[in-house]
Amino acid sequence: MKTFYRYRVIATVLLALAALTAAAGDRFAQDRARWLAIAEQCKPELNVTEVPPVSIVEAVEDPAAFQGWKYVPVASPDSLSEMNFRQMRTVTLDFGRHITGHLVLRLKTLGDVMDAPVRLKFFFGETPGEMNVPLDPWRGSLSRAWMQDETVTLYAADRDIRLERRVAFRYLRIDLMGGNFDFALDGVRCEAATSAGECRTALSPDCPQIIKDINRVSLATLAECMQTVYEDGPKRDRRLWIGDLYLESLAGRYSYQNHDLTKRCLYLFAGLTDGNGRMMADLFEEPEPHPQWGTYCLTYSLLYPSVLLEYLKDTGDVATAQDLWPVAKFQVEDALGRVRDDFTCSASRAWLFFDHQVMDLEVPFQGAMLFALSQTCELAERIGRESEVAECRALAAKIRKGVRARYYNRKSGLMESTDGSPVSVHAQIWAVIGGILSPREGRKALEAVLAREDAVRANSPYAMHYLLEAMMQCGMGEQAKAAMVDYWGGMVNKGADTFWEVYNPSDDLHSPYSFYPLNSYCHAWSCTPTYFIFKYPEIFQR
């Protein structure tokens, strides 16, 4: 313990010196404007394609369908331009796949002139269930404004009208709210936008069909979230989060390889750290780049060095890694200052996120911190900054030893909390990723926790990604493949054309927001199957 205390003092002194440096003002003040200018230089052009609807559909209740609803085709959308919408009053269109962009249409006069405005209500949805559940009275825990229904008054006919709001959807219902002349809906289409470009990888010809389907949906998910930053979800939370950035950059390595987009996001986060040097968990681009103050998520900030390291591996861009090194290093220094001498976390003022689950966070935090420490050391070695982290590997070894002594139950083979909280799969995952457990111990722990009915399980694609990562580190390739097929393949089998923010195989209506239509059905942290499929082709493509 005395040896650990010496290292703890070193970390505290480093933070104190850094704080003194920043005491007179902003830690990175001299670099912010330059960093944000570099981010702007990396801003991509969006590729826009016109996507028309593929069919007119009707909703059918079906207990066997996802969330109890499905759509069946009833007519060709080509007939819309000849059908009097004043008589139809409502129509639902299926665009055949998930798309993100702006709706364009025109009112085509049928004999009469347009002698009064037309009021239309548009309801865009990602799933049939979302489209067919009453929204009001509102039951969700997030803003009602996230739902994609718009009432628009149109004053002109026979010319293209482009809706201002960007939407993410597959299905569109149009209802006539007011209009007293005969007209048809003509030229309905979506100007779909993405910065993804062409995919640069291809699966082996004999790859199993379910893996092909999972990869296809993964690529579609990533492409929809690749806008002028890596968006969290194009329907909701249209912003950049560090946790999503890390996973999207991994998936991008084996697909679109748009590394300038990753570079842009790295520079945005660096340029928008607070005066102490900490970065908020997410940021917005409009009206100008700014963070969401008050969203400091310690476990997300710890992923920043990993994003920078993976970017360096992909591009060899040492100059960028050198430029952003101080920002990456500080995120880990800040975390180290939160480890008490008894190997518990002093993070009462920090947000720790691993999943939409209630669980003990001590072991996951320690594992995430140790993973970040290891990644930072590797980054330092690659850019010749080893002297700045000379004490870190020894410090990490001491922390691992202390955490094992406090939380590892040799009898059960599990990392367990000390306050009686239920054992969680997350603690085992991050004990593996953080090197607290050896691969052999990790395999035993993962197999044991997954066999327990009372364990806190992974409840999101975000947590499932790290479960697969831990499995691969423990030599559990076949189990990882089976988990991917069961989880992401389960979404495919339920009709997903992009992967969802939340998926509970036993509860299609599950939502962390108290109302499942609020869920995002195209979500960045769900796109990583393509990463595993191409990183480990000998496992996933055979």
Please describe what this structure looks like.
Helices cover 40% and strands 17% of the residues. With 542 residues, the chain is an alpha+beta fold. The chain folds into two domains: 2-44 and 196-540, Glycosyltransferase (Alpha/alpha barrel); 47-194, Sandwich (Jelly Rolls), CATH 2.60.120. Strands 1, 2, 3, 4, 5, 6, 7, 8 and 9 form a nine-stranded antiparallel β-sheet that branches. Strands 10-11-12 form a three-stranded antiparallel β-sheet. A hairpin with a 5-residue loop joins strand 11 and strand 12 (290-291). Helix 6 (242-253) runs parallel beside helix 9.
**CATH topology name of the largest domain:** Glycosyltransferase
Query: β content, as a range?
Result: 15-25%
Task: Note the gap between the termini.
Answer: 49 Å
* Strands, total number: 14
Strands, helices and their partners?
Blueprint: H1 2-23, H2 29-41, E1 47-51, E2 55-61, E3 69-75, H3 85-88, E4 90-109, E5 118-125, H4 128-131, E6 149-154, E7 161-162, E8 167-178, E9 183-194, H5 209-225, E10 240-241, H6 242-253, H7 259-271, E11 282-284, E12 290-291, H8 298-301, H9 304-315, H10 318-336, H11 362-382, H12 392-407, E13 408-409, E14 414-415, H13 425-433, H14 439-450, H15 461-473, H16 477-493, H17 529-535, H18 537-540
Antiparallel strand pairs: 1-9, 2-3, 2-4, 4-7, 4-8, 4-9, 5-6, 5-8, 10-11, 11-12, 13-14
Helix pairs in contact: 1-10, 1-12, 2-7, 5-16, 6-7, 6-9, 6-17, 7-9, 9-10, 9-11, 10-11, 11-12, 11-13, 13-14, 13-15, 15-16
List keywords for this structure.
single chain; 542 residues; alpha+beta; Glycosyltransferase; Jelly Rolls; 2 domains; nine-stranded antiparallel sheet; three-stranded antiparallel sheet; 14 strands; 40% helix; 17% strand; disordered N terminus
